[in-house]
Amino acid sequence: MSKKFDIYQSVTNRIVEALERGARPWNRPWRTLPGDGVPRNAVSGRPYHGINVMLLWGAAQLRGFSSQRWLTYRQAREAGGHVRKGETGELVVFWKFLRKEKHDEEGHPVLDAEGNPVEETVPIARGYWVFNVEQCEGLPEAVAGISPVEDPEWDPVPGAEAFVAATGAEIHHGGNRAFYAPHADRIQMPPRERFEEQDTYYGTLLHELTHWTGHGSRLGRRFDRF
Questions:
Q1: What are the distances in angstroms from CA 164 to CA 157, 195, 203?
Q2: Residue 51: which domain range?
Q3: For 139-193, what is each residue's pLDDT tens digit?
Q4: Per-residue pLDDT tens over the stretch 148-160
Q5: How many Å apart are CA 4 and CA 200, to the nearest integer?
Q6: Which of 102, 93, 105 is nearest to 122 (CA)?
């Protein structure tokens, strides 16, 4: 198995896993903030592009991260922090374009009309590993991007709040995504004030609670059938 195939297969496996577990970052019944929700490098601020967006969206949802800020192991150290021991990274891919001599099907160099070798551009995928800022410690706030927002004017619905509390589910608010993370056994919700109406907030939360009930310690449903 070639190195090139390994990268492609790894990317494919991660996307399939995210989809089978119900990752759906495109479904958002709440307001987003400028630049919010787009995976980006925590140090440079540059957003990731192409397939990396899907990879990091899916990774954040499956692993329960509310932040979409990522960085390499080295970047974490250079920023004054570190990746916690035992944490595992996520694969991102970039492309390098190499110029090389073109060969025919029999392996012979292809020549132009003047007898000079013909060159072609060959795309090669390269991968490296990044970590979410929530996997790190000691990062400065400018890198970690910690900016919790609470809405003092939120008007809860007592009946709905009582029902949710009775489930005993672990629920976190923050970020720009709503999902249930099976590995962490917790629900992640955007801040309440992002929702235009109360019913969309509770509707989203109750939807995630249906996923939460499928945990092995409860109903034991298979998450790839959600």
A1: 11, 17, 11
A2: 3-225
A3: 998 998 865 444 446 778 899 999 999 999 999 988 777 888 888 899 999 888 8
A4: 444 446 778 899 9
A5: 44
A6: 102
Could you give the maximum distance between any two Cα atoms of the chain, in Å? 83
CA distance linking residue 159 with residue 143, whole number of Å:
40
Cβ count within 10 A of residue 99: 8
Tokens of 76: 């974490």
Single-letter code of the amino acid located at 216: G
Residues 6+ apart with CB under 8 A from 13: none
Name the domain count of the chain. 1
User: Taken in order 99, 101, 105, 111, is the CA torsion positive or negative?
Assistant: positive
Mean pLDDT across the chain, nearest whole number? Answer: 81
Distance CA 34, CA 194 (A): 13
- 85 to each of 48, 59, 82, 92, 163, how far by Cα in Å? 25, 19, 9, 21, 38
Q: How far is CA 117 from the centre of its chain?
A: 44
Phi first, then psi, for residue 110 (nearest 5°) are -90, 130
